[in-house]
Amino acid sequence: MLVNMGCKVFEISSLSEKESWKLFKNTAGDLTEKRELKSLPKDICQKCGCVPMTIFTVANALKNKRDLLQWKEALRQLKRSSPKNFTGDMSRAYVSIQLSYNYLRSDLKKTFLLCSLISHQGFILDLVIYAMGLDIFPDIFTIEEARSKVYALISELKDSSLLLNDQTNDSFSMHDFIREVALSLAKGEDHVFSVRNEMNWRWPSEDEQKICKKIFIRDSTITDLREKLECPELELFFMNTKVGDSHVEIPEDFFKGMRNVKVLDLTRMKFSCLRSSSIPLLTKLQTLRLDNSVVDDIAVIGQLRTLKILSLQIGQLTQLMLLDLSNCQRLTVIAPNVISNLHRLEELYMRGCFVLQKTGGLNIERRKAILDEMNGLSYLATLEIQFNDANIFPEGLFSKELLRYNISGSFDEDGTLRTLRLECNSINWSENFRCFKNVEFICIGKLQCIGNVLNELERESSSQPSSSQLKHLHLHNTPNLSCIFNSTNCRDGVVFCNLESLILLNLTELKNICSGHLTKESFCNLKIIDVKGCVKLENIFSFANASSLPQLQTMKVESCDNMKQIFAVERGENENNNEVIDQIKFYQLRSLTLNFLPHLTSFYSEVKKPSTLQERWQDELDTPILLSNKKVWFT
């Protein structure tokens, strides 16, 4: 059934009574059979009107409620009339979501309402920024604590079916209808004024302004910008224009009537003169974002002594905890000692910021000095920076381990993994690596001593099997690299259990990807192998047994002139061949590409395990097994 609410249209499907009761019972659990509840579960299910969303939401809210009075109260609320904008099945769905909302704790309610005000696919970082600015968590004083708290709350809201499970841990989304219900609740309970994707709309009336606590103008056309709003209770003000619209100029006195604002978030705005604007009057402001806005002189921001989070640039803001300079392509200068004076800074974002680039306005000495200043920030836990000159890196890059980072010499991917993306030929990186042992993504070219770094990375985790967190390793154009891993230095020969992709390009001196014997636990999560232009490489891996690489999905080997077999499995003189190897099975392999391998004789070969050092140098292949042999299975 389709129900029209103005310009909003939602599809509400229906179930039969039997299907409805089955869904309710499966969701609520064994409590539905509890004798003391009598007919309450079926009565509540009936009130849900055979609407799946309503049934699932209500049953999920009641699944841990054992008190008879709680079930009676749920039935009473479902019988209660709903807001006039919702009728029929939509009315029942509204009440069910409101019921689930009513069972939430105070901090969950505040977070849920904030989620509804953020974009369709919201980011955890936005919630953290707003929560810190609004003091939603009175017992939390650091960004890291707030982030952990928000992650936990989002998880609870997903368990309550009020948020959808998203593809990444750093974002969330909400069903359109649940968002409409949440916005209705926010308007009534939290005095929120919200406009989204509108061309024609009106500001709240004078009476509404007096009680309004939050204003969100998102992705809407802004033509009538008043001289000022009189909102003495306002705590949060968000406004951006439609993408493609010209920047909107903010009147000087616009913020005079909202002096209690704690969070001010403006995107694609224009200030004719920030110094003479009314922003300095916001003495309680804790979060300020001026993303993609046109500002002239930001020195006036230094007067905002209560500011904790700033997304643009800085002044004498000694209490600042988060600084976001992402995509500030016009920012070419940061004055000396500005970064180092941010003693409380926990998170620094500078991806897409040109201040560290050769093309920026700073010479190499000043760019080095900025990194030195970062190195002295004792609370720094999250760092995202981009650069195109590896010579600016100081020795002993960072003095402590970062929890999250994306340090990149390129401007392509933007991910959520702890990332090192470097290309340089003048750094002995092993001297700088000690604070990046929790790295998840390494993409490196032309780097000296990278083999030592990777051995050190795995050796550090050898006392705790599988503790190496590296998931993706991409190496290219790295000279003098003959071996990447040495498993003899690792516990039980186990290396990189969590690695998912291995990409090696143009490593012209590479003879072994891994020296020593690999156990079946090594590379057990590897999904992608891509090797190209490694002209001295004879095989990809040499295993102690053939039951390795159970997760392999894609393999590509090209232009490796000396490649003789893809895999080798070693056996001892006294070992029975049938015991050592039966079949190699690639259950997950979906793509196999072998190109320009002139000396390739087999996909897999058994290799006699040498008993002496001399024999190790004179290994002879016993039995080459071609792709068509029954001992190699592709399912």
From TrEMBL:
Q: Which organism is it from?
A: Pistacia integerrima
Q: What is this protein called?
A: Uncharacterized protein
